[in-house]
Amino acid sequence: xxxxxxxxxxxxxxxxxxxxxxxxxxxxxxxxxxxxxxxxxxxxxxxxxxxxxxxxxxxxxxxxxxxxxxxxxxxxxxxxxxxxxxxxxxxxxxxxxxxxxxxxxxxxxxxxxxxxxxxxxxxxxxxxxxxxxxxxxxxxxxxxxxxxxxxxxxxxxxxxxxxxxxxxxxxxxxxxxxxxxxxxxxxxxxxxxxxxxxxxxxxxxxxxxxxxx
Length: 213
Fold this sequence. Notes:
6-stranded mixed sheet; 42% helix
């Protein structure tokens, strides 16, 4: 039986207004990554392969955890800033604030899937690259770590659990920074074994490090 560990990146620049400005870890994000790496080593985690997205926040997270990684752009996040701006331009949807994503995200995914907005890639291209990645990652007997983003984790779970877009959006919203999502591989198929765990942040004195944005 193999295992795939998906990790969301550490806290990025949450004050950003563009993807380029967002794509770097905050000081807290660097600390989260180091805490997760320390926790994994304390608990004897070993991986046959380590993958990360090519975005700066992915590379900084895996480096802060203390691993070298092979980069794969299929682990990259969707450009939600561009999609949000297109929703505003095409459909008049206000740009979201931190408290608006529960309502905003399902609308964005629905419009994107219907090709009413395009983003940097089509919805079908995003869905396909994550599906192809999941197939390639699902190798029996291999321990694989993947450092990625919440949108990719949500799409992986959509494939595994056959979620509709509303449920996928809802499952993405509570994903913590540097959270662990565990998949087991039997045969050539992956199954969900754990979701959104932050054991490295469980101590009461680390409450301030539990972040979503």
